[in-house]
Amino acid sequence: DTGVSQDPRHKITKRGQNVTFRCDPISEHNRLYWYRQTLGQGPEFLTYFQNEAQLEKSRLLSDRFSAERPKGSFSTLEIQRTEQGDSAMYLCASSHRQGEKLFFGSGTQLSVL
Amino acid sequence: DAKTTQPNSMESNEEEPVHLPCNHSTISGTDYIHWYRQLPSQGPEYVIHGLTSNVNNRMASLAIAEDRKSSTLILHRATLRDAAVYYCTAGGTSYGKLTFGQGTILTVHP
Fold first, then answer.
1. Distance, in angstroms, between A47 CA and closest chain B CA?
2. B98, A102: Cβ pair inside 8 Å?
3. Per residue in A42-97, pLDDT tens?
4. Most exposed: A47, A54, B16, B33, by fewest CB within 10 Å?
């Protein structure tokens, strides 16, 4: 169990640029989640995949956000035309079965200047 | 999901027990109660979860009120490494979507 891996750990970008984050879940986990966390707040759910199917998207996920999990393994989260309000920690988590605990990665800290 | 209410912060001394409360008065009968904790610059870490009965694991104990409207996370002997933000969540979907509140910042004094 190597844990959930996220890359990069930190990303600084200018407003209007596109950014992409990657998440590698624990290998046998078929469920993958993206959360966003701003300073002083708890994580907020963004989206959920079961295998390669994206089964739920939060209203927080505007049209500028897109997430994929093409082969049911790793996932990417892309933000187009970044805004300063997108600055946050983006967390990925995975789980194996229904109702099981989530394993979180260390997150990608995005700063939009 | 049920709304959860936790104290903003709590303090403890090392080696002493810590009781972290959580209110979830709107919890439904099938909602699980989950606790996670988060250290600085890390993602949340699972601590414990339960439905109706009290639960124990190597990290902590979870005491759930009989009416399930509140629960208490118990750290039996706090260590400096237990200093973290502790989140209580109640509800979530069958596939693991969780709603986190602001959590309780636990400070442990040596």
1. 9
2. yes
3. 999 999 999 999 998 998 888 999 999 998 899 999 999 999 999 999 999 999 87
4. B16
